[in-house]
Request: fold
Amino acid sequence: MSRILSKSSFVSKVISSTRKDTNLFSLTETSNKIVHEKPDIVINAAAKVGGIMANNTFRTEFILENLKINLNVLESIINYPDIKLINLGSSCIYPLDASNPIVEESFMSGKLEPTNSPYAMAKLTAIEMGNALKIQYGHKIINLMPTNLYGPNDNFDLNNSHVIPGLISRFYNAVSNESSEISIWGTGAPLREFLYVEDFANAIEFLLEKEWEHELLNIGSGEEVSIKQLAYLLKEISGFKGDIVFDPSKPDGNPKKLLNLDKINSLGWESSTPLEVGLKKTYQWYLDNIA
Ligand code: GFB
Reply:
């Protein structure tokens, strides 16, 4: 994101914040960073993230750490209503039974999907806290709801990552070991929408210059695939010659979560990287940097 924002004519300076320079679990350190840097805009992209297995296993850490990060970032700007905030949420904040494509108005209209409800609850809390700041102190805040992101620099762990980096590692290992079959979690039936990470960074850059009229804004690719289709695309890209088998003992999670993109599209933005192109780029990045 820093690379894309630093090329923007709208941005004079990008102040990155990493784990090394600021401990976001500490309110003092987070507040000091804000006071010291005096940013015009804060982009809250910090989070403890992971795939379905990590979310479902480390439920306590996912709610606790994400709540701490979000509360500290938001509390740090209370006294600075001129600092604008771009707060990153996730498509998993929408109710499990929201009709697809999911409109922003589905927010808080039903129960969450159980595998990632702790993470989603922390993200919902940040939105509510932002609304409180807006109403009480006049802050300008927009909450972006990206669909499942993927791309270079992701976490490619076999167990704790999201499906695309997890499968890239799995297919690479299967090709290297000349395995006769590869096991994919779940039934393969769930439908997902994936967005290439550079497209998401471009969307954020695009929004810097716009009026923030919406409380929530969905950001996605509009391209829906099943996990089975995704697995066959990665089989092709990786050159794996064996069989794909599904393991229904592993959770499927949400059966579908395609976002409605009418609002962001009507502002004049749409994604530009088709899934197959993004997968090829990401697989190549994995070969060049991790394999
Ligand atoms: O990407 P993913 O972990 O998360 O899984 P969610 C998507 C689907 O891929 C699920 C299946 O149905 C998984 O069962 N899958 C198949 C795999 N093989 C694999 C594999 O090797 N690794 C993984 N990870 N999945 C996430 C949330 O939900 O959505 C996050 O957990 C975040 O918190 C993100 O909000 C947007 O799409 O189910």
User: Anything to note?
Assistant: The chain has a mean pLDDT of 97. The chain has one domain: 2-289.
